[in-house]
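As promised in the previous annual report, we have extended the structural survey to additional targets. Below is the entry for Cadherin-12.
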Amino acid sequence: MLTRNSLSLLLWVLFDGGLLTPLQSQPQQTLATEPRENVIHLPGQRPHFQRVKRGWVWNQFFVLEEYMGSEPQYVGKLHSDLDKGEGTVKYTLSGDGAGTVFTIDETTGDIHAIRSLDREEKPFYTLRAQAVDIETRKPLEPESEFIIKVQDINDNEPKFLDGPYVATVPEMSPVGAYVLQVKATDADDPTYGNSARVVYSILQGQPYFSIDPKTGVIRTALPNMDREVKEQYQVLIQAKDMGGQLGGLAGTTIVNITLTDVNDNPPRFPKSIFHLKVPESSPIGSAIGRIRAVDPDFGQNAEIEYNIVPGDGGNLFDIVTDEDTQEGVIKLKKSLDFETKKAYTFKVEASNLHLDHRFHSAGPFKDTATVKISVLDVDEPPVFSKPLYTMEVYEDTPVGTIIGAVTAQDLDVGSSAVRYFIDWKSDGDSYFTIDGNEGTIATNELLDRESTAQYNFSIIASKVSNPLLTSKVNILINVLDVNEFPPEISVPYETAVCENAKPGQIIQIVSAADRDLSPAGQQFSFRLSPEAAIKPNFTVRDFRNNTAGIETRRNGYSRRQQELYFLPVIIEDSSYPVQSSTNTMTIRVCRCDSDGTILSCNVEAIFLPVGLSTGALIAILLCIVILLAIVVLYVALRRQKKKDTLMTSKEDIRDNVIHYDDEGGGEEDTQAFDIGALRNPKVIEENKIRRDIKPDSLCLPRQRPPVEDNTDIRDFIHQRLQENDVDPTAPPYDSLATYAYEGSGSVAESLSSIDSLTTEADQDYDYLTDWGPRFKVLADMFGEEESYNPDKVT
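The corresponding structure token record, generated without further manual editing, is:
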């Protein structure tokens, strides 16, 4: 190392090439491969017109990674042309790792690495160096940048980042079938040596699989690997650097390879004959047994389809595949009978649904087995001779009449007697009865076809030896009709004939209805009654198809002479006994136009002017109704107005509470109301002069003549009250009538004018002053009147 550094220093002296010359030890690689020529200009120490010397500058150092020595690793040396070895130059270092990873001798410029470096962590460091005058602290030359690269060593083994791997390959694949490609990664420098050159190999998994040493592709190495023999394989793969040479580092991974299934095996029955036992009472559609063929394949390749080979019993049984277990389920298509046949034998074929054409040469992918079924005897319920019994009976048949019978028998080996009874759920009204031993059915009530035409109920048969074994059959009884109702004319019962009708004209088609049977089962005949056949205005023409026509016999009809005609029609049916009825049809004479269209059939229309249509008549009537409504409304308004006027009149005999806004005159106001209504009725009739206003002349001193008929005013008030209570025309509002009646025991006697004198003679009102201060205003008023009366004698 010292020799090489000396050579570097010698070259620097010989070439005098630059200001900074890095010197480095290269134990494994010479520096001559990476030198670069730089031109460095010195700052200000030489005239700018002088030529600057140039030299070789190696601006790249190398340092070994993972250095484990006890001393700091020497990297290289920095030197300036201005350094004369007098100790006046100071070297400084800055940049990546300066001071922490790399140090520099300030006097000599030697650079050392003070810790171990990892190229995979940081491959290079960029630093800057400068020579500074110790005394002035000024740079002697510009700052120079250089790189220190970490030289790689083989310290990382290859790694499978995606491992472990899982792969599949179809069974029975040929040699060389692709399985999977693996890849290992080496963190070492791929550009330096063989540290990152990886080679693949199989450590475990031969001879079934092989791997390409360069690409890592795994392929099959043996033909016809069978999944049914071995399904899972575990292969150990190794990746080794240094090209697989001795001393290289290696990494491993596991590849789990599964053989996927193909349909290379046909289904096989484990035995050639299957024995099944089935009770004869098994219901149709029930599963009576299972058989299974074995297929070593998996998934859809193991799906099996079962079929019954045509032959004995093929029409009685069916077979389907259970999707979960792949078993063949045998089902019953028809009922079994031990007494008829005790055993059945047929063949079942099992085959795959999904075939692989590559394996057809191996043989047919199906198998056949024989199924033998033994029918077991079961104690069964009685069996009716018919699935449905239909019977007929006439209505009104006497109670107890036998109308039919049912038959059921026990078909088992030990035959048992049978008992019959009616299911009460289907014949709740008990119209029929059945003989429990013979099975004969009889009526229990009178039947009416018009009420119920058909009866449907069930009969149950049970074995005497085992009453729990029962069977049921439906009975349908049709009630036959007896001709008991006469036919009648269908609607309508009323028709019309035009006044201008001609003889032989059909004015109405009539038909008949019979409650006994539908018209399709009867033949009806129509004719006139004997009394109507004498000089008839109309006749009946029988069309022989259960209809008839009403035919005119006159040339024209007049509504003025006769508006309605009544035509009796006799209708007979064809049943036995013959039933007939007389039906009266009403024929109305109507006015028609020339085409026979009816215009009017009302009697009032006879008196209307000729030429007015029905619409015009309706319009005229509507106008009349409107006018009448207007007149009635006008009269009602006038009466209402007059009534309001009477209510406000001074002659009104009642005192009404009337609302008004002006203020009254107090006690001096004597014009507010008419008090005449409070007078004694007899006094009013004798003296009509009003006493509720001031007198025109003074009267003589008041004298109270005796009243001939001293009628109590309460009777009068009560009478008026009763009249108003029962009066339906009384107004709906409340009115206040005031009657000044003090009663017979008053000290001041009556204040009303009812009991006053019946004459208009002058009165003396001086007594008012004796009544106290309350009547002072009244006394002053009448006293003032007396003072201005010239006739008054003072």
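The mean pLDDT is 77. The radius of gyration is 71 Å. These points will be discussed at the next consortium meeting with the crystallography subgroup.
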